[in-house]
Amino acid sequence: MIAPVREGSRTLVKICGLSTAEAALAAAECGADLIGLVFAESRRRVTAEQASAIAERLAAHPDVVLTGVFVDPGMADLERIVPEARLEAVQLHGEEPPEFLLDIKRRMPGVKIIKAFSADGEPSHLRETGHGSASRGAAAERLLPYAGIADAFLVDSARGGTGKRFAWEIIPDYMAAAAAAGVPLFVAGGLDPGNVADLVGRYGPDGVDVSSGVETDGIKDVAKIAAFIERVRTIDQQRA
Fold this sequence. Notes:
Elements: E1 12-16, H1 21-30, E2 34-38, H2 48-57, E3 65-70, H3 75-85, E4 89-92, H4 98-107, E5 112-118, H5 124-129, H6 133-143, E6 152-156, H7 171-181, E7 185-187, H8 196-203, E8 207-210, E9 215-216, E10 219-220, H9 222-239
C-alpha cells in the first residue's frame, strides 16, 4: 500500500533516515505512514541486519510501509537486502532507467517502487521561474517514462537528506505529471515542523518526506517527529 492520488485524501507522511528500532517505533506511534531506511552512502546508513531488527519492532504497526532508500543499486544487492531487511518498498534516488524498475517488479513482485527525482535536475531557467508550459513539459518528460512502472514519485532538492529546500513553485508541475501517470507524488527537501503546514496547505501533495528536519544534533528527535506529523494532520482536517 502506498496511496491513492489526491482529491481530499489524507497526506502521507514518510519519516526517513531512521537507524534504530526505538526511533522507528516512535515514528510509527506518532502516525508515520512510511518509515525510510537508508542503504546508500550516508551517515544514516543501516545494514540489512539492522533493518530486519527494525522491521521486527514494527510488526505491531502493519500499515506502516518499511521503505529502503537506494542510489543506483545493483540488482544483486536488492535481491539480497530486500528480503533480509523485510522491505515493502524501495525508493530509488539515482539514474535508474525504467527497465531497471521493470526488472525489480519481475524479480520481486509485491515490492512497491518510489522513483525520486532531483529538482536540481531541472534546467536552471525552469528552477528560477518555476512555472509555465516549459516547466510542465520538463516534469512530464522526466516522470512519464516511469508511468505504469513506479508506484509513486518523489521530488527532492538533491539526492536526499541534505536538508535543503528547492523552489516550491515547480511542485504543481510535478503533481500534474504524477497525476497523469496515476500515482502519488511525495515532496521532500528542507521540510521541518516549521514549514510543512505551509507546503501542504499551499500545494497539497499526496505525501511529504522528512529526514534532517526532524533531527536535533544529527539524531532523530521524537518531539520534532510528532510536531511534524501533527501539523500535517491539522491541515488535512482543515481541508476535510
